[in-house]
Amino acid sequence: MKGVRFYEEFHDARKRRSTGNCLAIFPDNYAHGEYEAYVAAMAEPNSMPASGGVSIEVLRTKCKRVPESRARRVHPNLFRWLDDDAKRLRRNIQTALKASRP
Predict the structure, then answer these.
(1) Alpha helix positions (H), the chain
(2) What total of structural domains would you count in the chain?
(3) How far apart are CA 11 and CA 26, in angstroms?
(4) Distance between CA atoms of 61 and 26, rounded to whole angstroms?
(5) How many other CB atoms are found less than 10 A from the CB of residue 55?
(6) Is the dihedral of CA 64, 69, 72, 78 positive or negative?
(7) Cβ–Cβ < 8 Å for 63, 7
(8) In Å, how far are 8, 33, 58, 76 from 61, measured between CA atoms?
(9) Sequence-distant (≥ 6) Cβ neighbours of residue 50 within 8 angstroms
(10) Nearest-5° angle of CA 81, CA 86, CA 33?
């Protein structure tokens, strides 16, 4: 996915035991010391995501950057959310374009 970076969350700073969740951060959306992101809503593996913010400190101490393919395996619910968001955005753009035509 373009414009998105994926990070796997870990229970400890040594990054040995995964939480079973990943973060999707939007590096272009950084403000007040945090990146805009989709994060796990609960502390259980493959949790439903929620929108939020993630600090650089959390990314450094509790997360490890991973490729999209790994993030899809670890946290499929995150991608259900992201894929639905992308479909909604495309529909909204198409609707807006149709409405703007004379």
Answers:
(1) 56-62, 68-74, 76-100
(2) 1
(3) 23
(4) 19
(5) 12
(6) positive
(7) yes
(8) 11, 15, 5, 23
(9) 38, 39, 40, 41
(10) 70
Kindly list the distances between the CA atom of residue 19 and the CA atoms of 3, 53, 56, 94, in Å, as whole numbers in the listed order. Answer: 24, 18, 18, 38
Return d(Cα 80, Cα 83) in angstroms, integer: 5
**Residue 14 domain boundaries:** 5-100
Two tokens, residue 1: 């996915």
| pLDDT digits (tens), the chain, 102 positions | 788 999 999 998 888 899 999 999 999 989 999 999 999 999 899 999 998 999 999 999 999 999 999 999 999 999 988 887 666 666 656 666 767 776
Is 0.85 topped by the overall pTM? no
